Amino acid sequence: MMATRVLMAAMVLGVAGCAQIGAPFRADAPKAVQEAPEGPAPGTEQAPPPKSAVTVEQFDTTTAEERAAAAAPVEDGEKRLGTTIASLGDPADPGFWAETGMVDSVIQGRLENPANGKSVKVELRPSGGAAGSGTRVSLPALRVLEAPLTSLPELVVFGG
Q1: I need a surface site. Which of 46, 98, 128, 147 has the fewest CB within 10 A?
Q2: 63 and 19, same structural domain?
């Protein structure tokens, strides 16, 4: 009986949380939430994807040259900040970035995929969460890392 009540309470809380997560995508959400800004996103050279974007290629507005530059080896002086479980961030937010609790301010950094040795230079943005709360990563960065977009890969985070 008690287990049933606990299970029902967990289901109610889970559904309530989903309602909050889906709020920006509702038809009645404020226009500022639904429409992407014109021009490059702050801190990036990439324009946001078109509103009609539905494929990975349409959402990823980076060029082959930008992806190659992001994957280029980094200079010395970076510090390993730790490991994190990563998930796909907002695919409409262009550029190479990661939102993580490992930083308190925006800094340049790098992510490394230990599964294949690939790495990508990113802008590390504070997520407001704890250092172990996971990291949201941009679509272009996950593509350079060759990490599956629908899984939760473990990544190593380095700060500049």
Answers
A1: 128
A2: no
Short-list 123, 126, 125, CA closest to 108: 123
User: What CATH number should be reported for the domain holding residue 72?
Assistant: 2.40.40.10
Same structural domain, 62 and 23: no
How large is the average pLDDT for residues 22-36? 38
Other C-beta atoms within 10 Å of 6: how many?
Answer: 10
Tell me the CA distances in angstroms from 150 to 44, 53, 68, one per residue in order.
24, 18, 23
- pTM greater than 0.70 (yes/no): no
Residue 71 identity: A
pLDDT at 45: 64
Q: Are 87 and 149 in contact (CB under 8 A)?
A: no
Encode pLDDT of 76-101 as tens digits.
Answer: 788 999 999 999 999 999 999 999 99
| 47 part of a folded domain | no
